[in-house]
Specification:
The structure is a homodimer of 238-residue chains. By secondary structure, chain A is α/β, with parallel strands linked by helices. Chain A has two domains: 68 residues, Beta Barrel (Ribosomal Protein L25, Chain P); 158 residues, 3-Layer(aba) Sandwich (Alpha/beta knot), CATH 3.40.1280.10. Helix content of chain A is 30%, strand content 26%. Chain A is built from seven helices and twelve strands. In chain A, the strands form two sheets. The first copy, chain A, has a six-stranded mixed β-sheet. In chain A, strands 9-8-7-11-10-12 form a six-stranded parallel β-sheet, sandwiched between helices. In chain A, strand 10, helix 5 and strand 11 form a beta-alpha-beta unit. In chain A, helix 2 crosses helix 3. The longest helix of chain A is centred in the middle third of the chain and has 14 residues. The mean pLDDT of chain A is 96. Chains A and B meet through helix 2, helix 5 and helix 7 of A and helix 2, helix 5 and helix 7 of B. Chains A, B: Keywords: Cytoplasm, Methyltransferase, rRNA processing, S-adenosyl-L-methionine, Transferase. Chains A, B: GO terms for molecular function: rRNA (uridine-N3-)-methyltransferase activity. Chains A, B: It is an enzyme of class 2 (transferase). Chains A, B: Belongs to the RNA methyltransferase RsmE family. Chains A, B: InterPro entries: Alpha/beta_knot_MTases, RsmE, RsmE_MTase_dom, tRNA_m1G_MTases_N.
Chain lengths: 238, 238
């Protein structure tokens, strides 16, 4: 946690807040080793970033006073990432990292090589929690939009074109002839599509192509989905 | 595993090999669902990439024949990554990903914020195993060099200058004024230094600077070490 995130429910006045979340309390005590009088970096969800002073801290709650929220959160990237639903094990880290890096809209989509069982993983009901971890990691207060699209074809044909708009779109595909680094030299795409382990099948690549999504690879090396997403997103960072 | 890696011990003739490694056997049976007669992509460690035919497959061993090794492994990046020893939990994935992306030389270094206990983690004796997983992921046969540097100052002063040579070096530092994306527009550095969670302390940044290592950040957002390394390495990919 590089910032403590509060929401409306935490505030008892404009300048005073109470934290009862045990994970946050433990972080204050064990990692930050906060003491009464310490000033902490904090933000209000959907609002601004600032600071507040610890006036009480026990294993049950923390009370913060003199809260000021003055700074704007960092800009979001002008980017939608459409990701074939990954293995539950890597889903948490991927949501965290995409959020921390400032992706504006995350779409989890079905694909031929997505294991059907992933859609019934209990982790899918915890996306908000992973997204909050990402905001706390990336020092941000603005949640990205997260969309679930369980049907590939209707999503690509009906929803994707408006997400692309005037921008461009690239699908990362290990077997594509074009290279990602080359394609983005003109401009960064507004939509990035990434497959599951094993990538998309030719039918899916063709359907994406029919709405203007260009396929590009990162070279001859094949990367884990998680590594590939972060390597791709690195191109958006300053 | 996007390639089956064999070494000298597997070969019984130039064109025939036996696999007894249980993890590989399980992969052949459960993931690839290999059958007698199937032709598999394989490589010889430190040598070339090619294929071979399955002529016998049981739960105890696999026998491959008609092995030909004709293709060169992908080029390594002209890059040394010097990484403050991370938490054991992320060490495996970081070694895998850096290997899969083709980093030529990996140095694990001590730093002020590296927890001392990390140096006695049993995972440190399994680096070769993680590196092999990375080669199998990245479709490569050439192991990167891996160096452990338990003393920060002597390494930086005595060993780092010759690793930089005629190239340049950048340390990723969340609080640096310069931006990584800007600094690399002229040329990619030959050496990349990445800190532990919490980054390097000012003394370490100064010592690195004294041998010519420039500090640069990826913007105002703070990333997990693992995400940061992959986001940085993305700049080297085509």
């Amino acid at each position: 946690m590089n910032i403590i995130l509060l929401d409306d429910a935490n505030f008892i006045t404009d300048r005073m807040a109470v934290i009862e979340d045990q994970a946050v309390i433990r972080h204050l005590q064990s990692v930050l080793k906060a003491q009464t009088g310490d000033v902490l970096k904090l933000g209000k969800l959907g609002d601004r970033i600032g600071q507040g002073k610890v006036i009480e801290l026990s294993h049950r709650h923390a009370i913060l006073s003199d809260i000021t929220l003055t700074a704007s959160p960092p800009n979001k990237l002008n980017l939608t990432v459409i990701l074939a639903l990954p293995r539950p094990k890597v889903l948490r880290r991927l949501i965290m990292d995409m959020t921390a890096m400032g992706v504006d809209h995350i779409v989890l989509i079905n694909s031929y090589r997505t294991d059907k069982s992933y859609w019934s993983s209990p982790l899918l009901s915890r996306l908000d929690e992973f997204m909050l971890e990402g905001l706390q990691q990336g020092v941000d207060t603005m949640p990205p939009k997260i969309t679930l699209a369980k049907r590939f074809k209707p999503f690509v044909q009906d929803d994707l074109p408006s997400l692309i708009g005037d921008g461009s779109a690239i699908v990362a595909h290990p077997y594509a002839k074009d290279r990602f680094g080359q394609l983005i030299q003109q401009r960064l795409p507004q939509v990035l599509v990434v497959g599951a382990e094993g990538g998309f099948i030719p039918y899916e690549i063709e359907l994406l192509s029919s709405v203007g999504v260009q396929a590009a690879s990162l070279g001859d090396r094949i990367l884990r989905t998680e590594a590939a997403v972060n390597a791709l997103l690195g191109r958006w960072l300053p």
